[in-house]
Amino acid sequence: MLRLFGPLIAPIVGLGFIAALILAIITASYESEPATAAHEFHLHPKPLHLASDGMLGKFDRQQLQRGFQVYKEVCSACHSARLVAFRDLSEIGFTVPEVKAIAKNWATEVPSVNPETGEPATRKALPSDYIPSPYANETAARAANNNALPPDLSLITKAREGGAPYVHSLLTGYRDPNTYRNEKGEALPADAKPSANLHFNPYYANLNFAMPPPLVADGQVSYADGTKASVDQMAQDVSAFLVWTAEPKLENRHRTGVAVVIFLLIATTLAYFSYQNIWAGRKH
Amino acid sequence: MSFPWAQHYAPKHPVMQWLDQRLPVPRLVYNAVGAGYPVPRNLNYFWNFGVLAGAALGIQIITGIVLAMHYAANGAIAFDSVEQIMRDVNSGWLLRYAHANGASFFFIVVYIHIFRGLFYGSYKAPREMVWLLGVVIFLLMMATAFMGYVLPWGQMSFWGAQVITGFFSAIPVVGDPIRIWLLGGFAPDNAALNRFFSLHYLLPFVIAGVIILHIWALHIPGSNNPTGVDVKGPQDTVPFHPYYTAKDGFGLGVFLTLFALVLFFAPNALGHPDNYIPANPLSTPAHIVPEWYFLPFYAILKAFTFNFLWIPAKLWGVMAMFGSILLLFFLPWIDRSPVRSANYRPKYKWFFWMLVVDVLVLGYLGQAEPTVLVVLGSQVCAAYYFAHFLIILPIISRIERPLPLPNSITESVLHGEKAEAAPFGTQTA
Description:
The complex is a heterodimer of chains A (284) and B (429). Chain A is mainly alpha-helical and 284 residues long. Chain A has helices spanning 9-27, 37-41, 61-73, 96-104, 138-144, 156-159, 163-172, 231-246, 250-278; strands at residues 81-85, 110-113, 120-123, 130-131, 199-200, 208-209. Chain A has a domain at 39-80 and 133-251: Cytochrome Bc1 Complex, Chain D, domain 2 (Orthogonal Bundle). Chain A has nine helices and six strands. Chain B has helices spanning 14-22, 25-33, 49-68, 78-87, 92-119, 128-150, 155-166, 175-183, 190-219, 240-265, 295-303, 313-334, 346-367, 372-399, 409-414; strands at 38-40, 237-239.
């Protein structure tokens, strides 16, 4: 459009942008905003090292099974994992009969229809079912949780800045707001302290987190493989499990990637020598 | 058209002769990217990026067509259908990560391609049309990328669509009706998602069409080169094939290796975590940011924070953001210097790198939280961006004294070594 208006309009409009900006720069007030408690007290996630990290990372299936146990016995009371089917659990080392048993004994049944009457009903889960939500709908979930909605956990390690280390830090990061001191030794200001039903957690962006501490005591879960179920261990295991739920094809990806990159390096080297060969002796 | 010394297509095989007389497609290819296209012999690696951009478009079209076989453009199931691609479709994760990161790599190579054109004056006569068509391709790419980002129907998809279509509501009087008409509703919803999917599938083929025009227009004067000096004779050129096909083959290998490293080992590094949360019209993300390749323009948009001359800030921002790209259409007539390559323009060279830094800083500021300093920084950088084109370029193209140009490409390559001055492509090895 602008081209139609001839050669002058465009420079004038453009110079208008410059004039507007210069005026804005001159007339702006440069008082910086006061730092908020969230800025002063918010912590970045602690480092967490998992077997799935790095270019050659693979899942530690033993750990994923422990993490699944934590999810099943603790998290699943409030959180769904709707993108994960029970059948997928065979990928982390459960046998087919174990998967069937896990589905059948799941605390929440899946929605169904009564074959006799056609009325809504529930039935025991099958391996082909996805892990059900403990709540019938969002309203029910909020009603049970002081109006907070427990998010679905399937993608949580990809849907939060910081990923698995963030989940691990959050689960182990609850502190007493009355005695907590930040790096500078400052106490939490009164207006930043959690109100009723909120819980102080410096790893959470606004410090006050609706979820009560889910992992509270060592041995809260009894691991079948004999691993000591400390709070930190349980938090690490469930974080590792949630890496798998978010990215079940991670091992495929790493394996394929190594092969592809090796292939491409060889092909590129050959292409380089071919290029040098064709241009040999020619200045350019 | 081409240089008079271009090699002529002469098929030897009877089948190729038969085909050439009836549908001379091989002849077209031979003349376009084969031995029949003479190219300056001194091109550096920055001239690989046109071919790389074409390769990136090819990757996007192929992965995109297969993804469309599995994707469902429906607001209720779009997010889950993408997750199904990631989990249950054979190699679906590879297709989707290749497509999502392919968009980023497409923009990386196109940005380098554009800045190469800016540095070596490839927009100047007689290549203005090549440049203009290039800007058209860039605009189409931006539209395509934006609509593609909406399709997974995550939080950033939804709120990005809300913000971008909101630009139209800045138009006085008719803005809101236009926005509602474009979206097919008051907010992004199923109607918007479906039309974005339709257009996202269409535009890449429009891009492919404009690329054909871009290459056609390029082949009239032939490629520019790092000296910016015109081709004077056969000794200045080599046939595109095998000389530049071989060099592009190597460049493509490097490009694909870097692409594979990101695709397989950091596929979400360039994305935003919020887009793994399903779209929720009732919950606004704390910071809505576009994909990285839009950040400099986003910073220009946000730099306009106050009303000026009875025009509201939002309208200024939207006009400036579009203006920052439309400005590029005028570049061939803004820069009046007859010298193309910045290598022979001591002042322009300096300001070119200033512009590169300016755009990079704008990109950083585009994603930063809007503190006082960030807003001030984007105002300074946005003003500098426009000043570069509208004040600095016209002035330096008048006052600058360019360095002496080489007499020819061959002279600059050989530095007086006569031995190799024979026509280059015709030499035997």
